[in-house]
Structures are given as structure tokens and as C-alpha cells.
Amino acid sequence: MGTQSFQELGVAKWLAESLEAMQIHKPTSIQAACIPEILKGRDCIGGAKTGSGKTIAFASPMLTKWSEDPLGIFGLVLTPTRELALQIAEQFVALGAQMNIKVCVVVGGEDFVKQALELQTKPHFVIATPGRLADHILNSGETTIAGLRRVQYLVLDEADRLLSNSFGSDLERCFSVLPSSDKRQTLLFTATITDAVKVLKDKPRPADKLPVFMHQVESVDKVAIPRTLSTLYVFVPSFVKDAYLNSILLLPKYKDATAIVFVNRTMTAEVLRRALRKLDFRVASLHSEMPQSERTNSLHRFKAGAARILIATDVASRGLDIPTVELVINFDIPSDPDDFIHRVGRTARAGRKGDAISIIGERDIERIQSIEARINKKMELLEDVDDDKVIKDSLQIMTTAKREAMMEMDKEGFGEKKKVNKSKRANSEENSLESRRDKKKKKKQKTT
């Protein structure tokens, strides 16, 4: 199949022009495969890694259909993180600018009431994280969510993560107000087609509905990590990981390198950010406890070079447009080997060299074995750091900096908001269960 233009794929002329203006001339393979099938009305599962243009693969057919009949909320895009939601929304706005498109972003960390009012004006597209949308469905009343009952498109972006257990109840609540699957088109995009995603493909369907179209871009699994990437490790007792991190960042070959340090928990990200700042590193962080404006600010500082080190949880690693870095450090080892691939994919892009260093503690052995099996490569020992060096250069100062950071966080009540919100949500779920029980009771009494 020769390279077709967007218009030949069936994209509206105005949209092809918008793409052209954004310097997007040729469809990528995921776009060429999915756009015509989505325009035919088929549900679609697209497997392609970040950076392969999957947003345009679902946005352009949706915008094409929308421009023929721009009524009500036309499409809902669900995605696991705020950053991704904002990034997708930016693309929709840019693509639909000349058609006066209205896009509403519904994510945590932003003004709840303002979002509810925006939803009431029935924007054309809603880009949301499941947790916050579920909150609106629970608490914002029918006028707010009425528009969602007639959406024509539902997109699950990073579907492999949305369909993991952590989003289960929120997703169900979101689906409860949407048209049933035979009355809407469902598009799933994912970097890894997991079993949970495959199950959806084989669900029984109404006779008049076309079969699900599934397309996986070939290169997803063949080249798990670039050849120019060195994967290194240090093996350390877990209680001195931070001291080792300090020593690695001070190595002559890394002392000016831009680096991302990945951690598994927001708490760790915040402790490290504060501790490293006390040691005069130019550092920024990205995690879910930060207000949205601060996250955006962090990303800008890192992109502009004002911060040399970005400390991030996986929330920040997926799909985000982070510039190429020279060094990726896995301070914590991810439980999913695919997350490892996403993380280290931030360096050694487009044929350039890059290093990925994993700080391995005694409990991480199994995880490392499954990562090595997945990337089909053994990690090599980072020779330049050893216990003596760490004890001499880093142990004392890092322990002190970390202790001070934790005392500050304690004073400021870091993480309290999350606890409060958790119990609020649990309460409102309990209340709604109780009121459902009461209604049932009353019904029973009436009938008897």
C-alpha cells in the first residue's frame, strides 16, 4: 500500500488542511490502518507505542464525522493520567481550531464546579480521567452528565492500563451513563495488547454490527529497546539507595547529563526532590499529588533546561512528550516489564546513545529477571560506583538531607489531601448504596 494522503483515507478536507498546517503530511502506519475502518463505523483496537501518532488515528475520523453533524457531546476520550488528558485535548483543540471546536478536560486537581458547569454547556469532546468523571457522575447531578448519555464515540487511550484493576469501579461508573456498546463506536488504543484487551475483541456482538477491527503495528515487540541504549545496574542494600543515587548523579560522565529518575510512589518522588534540592541539584518532579499547574511548570522547567533532573512516577512516563534525555535511572524497579521499556524509551532515541541505570535492591531480583527476559538482554554492572565511594561521598549528606525533607513534609501534611479524598469518596459511595437500599425498602413496602 503506497503512502496515501489523509484525504485519500477519508479525512475531511478542512481537517487534512489543518494537519498540513501542523506539518503532519503523511499518515503513520497506525493512522493509515485505523482511520478508514473507524470511518466505516467499526469498533477498533489499535496497538502502537507512544509517539506513533495514535491520537490522530482516533481524533481525525471522529472530527471528520463530527464536522458533518456537530451536535451535543460527540465523543468521550478516557485516559489514565491528567498529563495525557491535557495532551490529547491540546491536539483536539489544535486540529479543530478553524471549526470552533469546544473541548472540555475533566481531570483531578482542577476546579470541580467549573468542570461541572463546562459539562453542562455540552462541549463537543470530553477528555477525562475515569476517577474524576466518576466523581461527577456520582455528585454533579443529571444536568451535568446528560450530554454523556448520547455520545457517539468512546475512546480508551492506554487501554491496557485503564483495564487493569485499579480503574475498575471508576470505569464501570463511567460506562453506566454512556449509550450501550451497540449504540456507540468504541476505540481502544494501547501500547501493549494485553489479555484484557483481547477479551473485548471476542465479545459477542449484535448481528448488524461490523466485527471489531484490530491492528497492531508490527514493531511493537520486535525491538523492545534501542540498540544504542546501555542497560546498567548497581546492586545495593535497599536502605542506601538514595546515597547511591547521589553518587551516580555526581559521576563525571553524568554530572551535566539531563536525567529522569523513575520511582514507584509519589511519596518517594517528593522526598527525593526535596533531598536532592538541598544538595544543590537542579531538580523538578512529576507525580499525582502535585497540583496541575505545578506539574505543567515542572515539565516546562525540565524542557527548558532550568532543571537537569526530573523525578517522575509512571503516571508521568506514559505518552508524555518529554524531550530525549541522556540518562534514565530506575530508582525503583517497576513490577511490569513494559513499564521498564516505556521508562528507558525516554533515552537513546533516533540512533543517539543513552544509558539506563537500575538501582536494584535485594527484593527486586525477580522483577529484574522478568525485565531481562522481556528485553532479551542482560544488564551490565555499572563499574564506577562502589560501596567505599558511596560511604565516603554520599551516605552522610544524603541521610541528613532526606531526614530534613521528611520532617518538612510531615509539617506540611504531605499526602493528607489524598487520604481525605479517599475517605470522602468511600463515604459518598456508601451513602449512594444506602439511599439505593432505602429506595428498594420503600418500594417493597409500597408493593406489600
From TrEMBL:
Subcellular location: Nucleus
UniProt motif (Q motif) ranges: 4-32
GO CC list: cytosol; nucleus
One Pfam match: DEAD
Keywords tagged on the record: ATP-binding, Helicase, Hydrolase, Nucleotide-binding, Nucleus, Ribosome biogenesis, RNA-binding, rRNA processing
A GO MF label: hydrolase activity
Domain annotation Helicase C-terminal: ranges: 244-390
Protein's GO biological process: rRNA processing
UniProt keyword rRNA processing present: yes
CDD domains: DEADc_DDX49, SF2_C_DEAD
Residue ranges, compositional bias (Basic and acidic residues): 409-418
UniProt family annotation: Belongs to the DEAD box helicase family.
Protein name (Swiss-Prot/TrEMBL): DBP8
Organism: Candida oxycetoniae
